[in-house]
Amino acid sequence: MLPSQPLLHTAVFALAVLQALASDTFTAAVYEHAVILPDATDEPVSPDDALALMNKNMDVLEGAIKEAAQQGAHIIVTPEDGIYGWHFTRETIYPYLEDIPDPAVNWIPCTDPTRFAPAPVQERLSCMARNNSIYVVANIGDKKPCNSSDAGCPSDGRYQYNTDVVFDPEGKLVARYHKYNLFRRETQFNYPKEPEAVTFETPFGKFGIATCFDILFREPAVVLVSELQVDTVLFPTAWMNVLPFLTAVEFHSAWAMGMGVNLLSANTHNISLAMTGDGLFTPEGPAAYHYDSGTEEGCLLLAELSAHPRLSPTYPPAVNWSSFATSIKKFPGEKDTFLGAVRRDIFTFSELRHKAGNYTVCQGDLCCHLIYRMANKSKDEVYVLGAFDGLHGSLIKYHWQICTLLKCKSTDLNTCGQPVETAQTKFETFSLSGTFGTNYVFPEVLYSGVQLAPGEFEVLRDGRLKSKHGTSKPLVTVTLFGRLYEKDLPHPLRTAP
Question: Which of 313, 360, 466, 481 to pair with 187, CA 20 to 30 A apart?
Fold first, then answer.
């Protein structure tokens, strides 16, 4: 007699759990999705039209989820805004929202779709997870009614949240996270009243969730790692690349290394908005990453990761980020500094005039030291050492400390700090350090063509970001990106409308 479907499913799930338990590793997947966007409108569409658009995107995501499961993935992350896009007002996004319950209700939407209000998106995502025996991470919108007894209740009588959901391999809703740090243009959503540090346990480690802009702030991203000790952070994002320091693959890889944690970053793909770049990032560098500014294609990535990276024999040692920089005398070079803008941030720069040398540049409380040797010194390319110690942002202001070796856009020093994607100069060696006032420093090395440099650099215990050998490709930037969270200004927008 053949076993019943529920029994068969339970057996398959149990086998998957045993396989995961028997290993110190797991296979993770991220999908960079070229979102099918709704037509621009000032009026809300019907719920049926909203669901039709979301189903088109979920058709694509389901294909990626099936492929990932077939290749042995235990978990897949899909992007922020991946199901409906981002061009909305508060009113026009409403037909796309569902009421997402607290996971404590112990709900499998796939098998019990009528338990709560109609939730076809949650039902379909739950079935994708259940039918493929895989954890599925997706980003959708949550709506929560409120009334005048709540002083913060919006005038339309509801809260609307940018929300990540996680369904386990049985299709059960196991996590719900409301994005805490909304990007300025996300006026369709409300800020949660309090930050949510959402975690859940799996057979292959403890997971936390953050969304896009969250990664630049302390709550919840740093709290998940430093206080709650998650092994892996799930990271749906709709990330617009900003050179020289904040391309998706560059900063997300650096954050994983600086925090000593796995980061599963799934980006949207829209090259007209400079949205591309995702990856499976580890404390030791990228296990896999993807950057494509030339096509409109989505991309599935898979990699085997350590389930408990802190227990790995290759886990990087703790770093005292200012140890080396505070122990040495300043190198020459301060007299020849000039100011230059990286977007709106005014850096102190010093030109690297020779093929090799030692330089120091200071700004505020930060002094940056560089020892370098170029393989070739091109007359057509100028590199500078730069320092920035101050508040970044025009409205939401947060404190950065940055030491950077970067290529200028042209030989005109006024272009230093402007976006550059390509270079011709390789370096035989570099060593960058700074007198940072924080333990939260993220090491970046970016090569020509917006390519990472896995295995080609190291961070020493004394805070030096150092090349292991010569660079294999021309260099765009080497950066130590520090965050002084305690110096951030109060958030000006975190109130209900």
Answer: 481
pLDDT digits (tens, 9 = 90+) for 340-364: 999 999 999 999 999 999 999 999 9
Strand-pair partners of 368: 361, 434
Q: Average the pLDDT over 49-78 and give the result.
A: 98
C-beta separation of 252 from 280 below 8 A: no
The residues facing 464 across adjacent strands are none
**pTM for this entry:** 0.94
Q: How many CA atoms lie within 13 A of 190 on its CB side?
A: 24
CA 202 to chain centre: 21
Would you please indicate which residues are annotated as catalytic (active-site) residues? Answer: 80, 179, 212
Confidence of residue 2 (pLDDT cuts 50, 70, 90): very low
Read off the DSSP letter of residue 29.
E
The 3-state DSSP class for residue 340 equals strand
Three-state DSSP class for residue 304: strand
Instruction: State the residue for tokens 């030109």.
Output: 351
pLDDT tens-digit map of 198-225: 999 999 999 999 999 999 999 999 999 9
| Distance between CA atoms of residues 273 and 262, nearest Å | 27
Amino acid code (one letter) for 40: A
Looking from the CA of 63 toward its CB, the CA atoms found within 13 Å total: 10
Rounded CA gap, 10 and 293, in Å? 43
Helix axis angle for 47-70 and 120-132, nearest 10°, is 10
